[in-house]
Specification:
Layout: H1 2-14, E1 18-24, H2 32-42, E2 48-55, H3 85-88, E3 94-96
Parallel strand pairs: 1-2, 2-3
Length: 97
């Protein structure tokens, strides 16, 4: 996650308005603890317009063979429910798409 965190930090420091998006994968990053930690990363970003949580879409794996690659995560699933409260409780506008 180092590259992602470095890019997020640079974006926050830039002052440029942005929308952050995170795909949410069941059993990988859908826990309350993980979502709370993510919300903590952006809670003081004055240039964050909103945060969007995207349920994992397994259809993306079907595109890999078209570009000669193997999809390495065929067992990933979308969570049954995505809890946006860790963001909303910190005053961050959050949408589940």
């Amino acid at each position: 996650n180092r590259l992602i965190l470095n890019n997020l930090s640079a974006l926050i420091e830039s002052g440029v308005p942005f929308i952050a998006r995170t795909p949410v994968i069941a059993g990988v990053n859908d826990s309350s603890e993980n979502l709370s930690a993510t919300a903590e990363l952006v809670k003081n970003a004055k240039n964050l317009q909103r945060f969007e949580l995207l349920p994992y879409n397994g259809a993306a794996g079907g595109k890999y063979p078209m570009v000669g690659k193997t999809f390495e995560y065929p067992d990933f699933k979308a969570p049954e429910r995505i809890d946006a409260s860790p963001f909303k409780n910190r005053g961050i506008e959050c949408r589940v798409l």
